[in-house]
Amino acid sequence: MIVFDRVHKRYPNGREALSNVSLRIAPGEMVFLTGRSGAGKSSVLKLIALLERPTRGTVTVNGINTTTLRSRGVPAFRRQVGVVFQDHKLLMDRPVFDNVALPLVVADTPLREIDRRVRAALDQVGLLGKEGVLPSELSIGEQQRVGIARAVIARPPVLIADEPTGNLDHGLALEVMRVFKRFQEVGVTVIIATHDLGLVKEFGQREIVIENGQVAGPPGGGPADGLPPLPALQARR
Hints:
Helix content: 25-40%
CATH topology of the largest domain: Rossmann fold
Largest sheet: 6 strands, mixed
Number of domains: 2
Mean pLDDT: 89
Distance between the termini: 20 Å
Number of helices: 8
Low-confidence stretches: 218-237
Oligomer: single chain
CATH architecture of the largest domain: 3-Layer(aba) Sandwich
Strand content: 15-25%
Structural class: alpha/beta
CATH superfamily of the largest domain: P-loop containing nucleotide triphosphate hydrolases
Radius of gyration: 18 Å
């Protein structure tokens, strides 16, 4: 479960990105973060991935309080969260295989295991057979799926994506969202920040609206199905 408890985030330049945010996301849930540009969606994702720490409040991911996690524990924690970027962030001079394998190479995974897991990840996103192709030879939608394969190669329990369909037409966006949905269906917690309200409506998953650094409406965008309220959060509202 992911829990934000009265979280504030102020950046060094003085900008208050999040103010008193409390929300919760159940294990294996797929959630959309929506809101205008600059509302705070990306800051929520950065706090989940421990790319940033809150100024005040606590963020808990899979039972780990990231607010107090020591620096030496950060690399291991980050392997629990797969991150998908809008601009893919692929190495354009390296083939697909090398791009997807990168997290395993960094973790000193044996070569035989890397080969097996890269092919399995590419199969999951429908790109098996493209191992030797350069990213520039792929469509934009295929490049995004390479990014997803790289994000899930370490089998993280949490997958986050920041505007992953922002540069795609509706058909390609649907394909990418279906890939995310398949991971959610096998138990991965998926959080997607998006402006595309049509896609949100089409997939029928829970929506958390962020406005001016705060959760709009009920805390957490309404309770997750089957989850009782969290007394600790309620008591502090």
